[in-house]
């Protein structure tokens, strides 16, 4: 059972801990500064936070003592010869993701960034190098901006039994797979639909919002994007839409999958990409137990009128029976029964960018 919750918010890293009477605010770090992503490394317990300072650029902070002290880690830099798709020199614009590597690679840490670079460290984050295999992929000149002006790498799936088997989600580029530790990559977008492209079934240019895998069945992948909810049962070789017409979870960002059952998933739906707010004016969580053939709406404990919450791609997490999500309006909700009922933890937080449960 998780005992700690790390929130990346527009006004800092906010930490909650579970006590006898439930979840309580424990501490705030980097107060006043936007924290785009925060995570605890399960291998050594260190905390990581990516800070979006705006004028001062992107910063990385690491704590080896669970927030009692922090040290700035040099943020990655693009090589001088690295050019964006438009020919301009590439510079670090945003850190979307901090992903600790597997236990078999104790020093490995990945960063997903704009303008489309995956950075890798093998010394615990002291130094980072650009994954040239992905950066130099011939399709990169076709990648475009999604929520930002340039492509962003926001998702990384590391196969639990093979650390060299990687999958990334690129907005707007698509899904890419490597089986040799990042040296070579291939697109994995068959079955996806991108209605905003001249060719909706083009291999390159899709906008996955988040890609997650079932830990016990990593060949089963889930994603949301502008055109629906999609699932793959063969490691991304083929995707199938699991949100038919009229289904509640048609558009959104976040998705969580059960640790054991690959057919169980949870999403927080929004109206559409044009109207990014809670569907039907009430906040709900959609869940499926049969791989997306049917869906249920979970609303117990959630507001059902005048609701404008949106949940970003990293704003939902699950561990055991606990599900947590945070919204753009600063609301934080927790369920201890796999989403059947929800409790409001706080309604006074700044917009929430990331939600991560830890041990």
Describe the overall structure.
It is a single chain. With 359 residues, the chain is an all-beta fold. Helix content is 1%, strand content 42%. The protein is built from one helix and 28 strands. The strands form seven sheets. It has a four-stranded antiparallel sheet, with no helix packed on it. Strands 4-5-6-7 form a four-stranded antiparallel sheet, with no helix packed on it. A hairpin with a 7-residue loop joins strand 26 and strand 27. The longest helix is centred in the middle third of the chain and has 4 residues. It is globular. The N and C termini lie close together (7 Å). The mean pLDDT is 94.
Radius of gyration: 19 Å
Overall shape: it is: globular
Strand content: 35-45%
| Helix/strand structural class | mainly beta
Low-confidence stretches: none
Mean pLDDT across residues: 94
* Strand runs, count: 28
Spatial ordering of strands, largest sheet:
3-2-1-28
Report the major sheet: 4 strands, antiparallel
What are the secondary-structure elements, in order, as H or E?
A: EEEEEEEEEEEHEEEEEEEEEEEEEEEEE
**N-to-C terminal Cα separation, in Å?**
7 Å
Which percent range fits the helix content? under 10%
Contiguous helical run count: 1
């Amino acid at each position: 059972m998780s005992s700690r919750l790390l929130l990346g918010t527009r006004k800092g890293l906010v930490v909650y801990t579970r006590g006898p009477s439930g979840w309580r605010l424990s501490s705030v770090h980097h107060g006043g500064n936007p924290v785009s992503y925060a995570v605890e490394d399960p291998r050594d317990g260190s905390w990581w936070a990516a800070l979006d300072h705006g004028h001062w650029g992107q910063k990385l902070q690491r704590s080896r003592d669970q927030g009692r002290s922090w040290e700035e880690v040099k943020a990655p830099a693009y090589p001088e010869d690295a050019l964006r798709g438009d020919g301009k020199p590439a510079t670090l614009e945003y850190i979307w993701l901090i992903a600790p590597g597997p236990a078999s690679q104790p020093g490995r840490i990945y960063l997903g960034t704009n303008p489309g670079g995956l950075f890798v460290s093998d010394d615990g984050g002291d130094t980072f190098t650009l994954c040239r295999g992905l950066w130099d992929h011939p399709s990169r000149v076709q990648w475009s901006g999604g929520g930002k002006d340039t492509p962003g790498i926001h998702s990384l799936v590391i196969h639990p039994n093979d650390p060299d088997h990687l999958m990334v989600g690129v907005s707007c580029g698509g899904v890419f797979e490597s089986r040799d530790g990042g040296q070579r990559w291939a697109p994995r977008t068959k079955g996806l639909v991108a209605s905003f492209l001249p060719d909706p079934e083009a291999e390159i240019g899709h906008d996955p919002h988040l890609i997650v895998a079932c830990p016990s069945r990593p060949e089963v992948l889930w994603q949301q994007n502008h055109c629906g909810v999609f699932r793959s049962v063969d490691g991304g070789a083929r995707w199938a839409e699991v949100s038919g017409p009229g289904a509640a979870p048609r558009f959104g960002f976040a998705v969580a999958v059960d640790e054991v059952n690959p057919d169980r998933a949870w999403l927080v739906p929004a109206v559409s990409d044009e109207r990014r707010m809670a569907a039907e004016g009430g906040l709900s969580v959609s869940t499926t137990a049969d791989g997306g053939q049917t869906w249920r709406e979970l609303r117990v404990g959630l507001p059902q009128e005048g609701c404008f919450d949106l949940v970003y791609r990293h704003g939902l997490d699950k561990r055991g029976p606990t599900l947590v999500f945070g919204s753009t309006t600063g609301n934080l909700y927790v369920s201890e029964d796999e989403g059947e009922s929800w409790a409001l933890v706080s309604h006074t937080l700044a917009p929430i960018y990331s939600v991560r449960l830890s041990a």
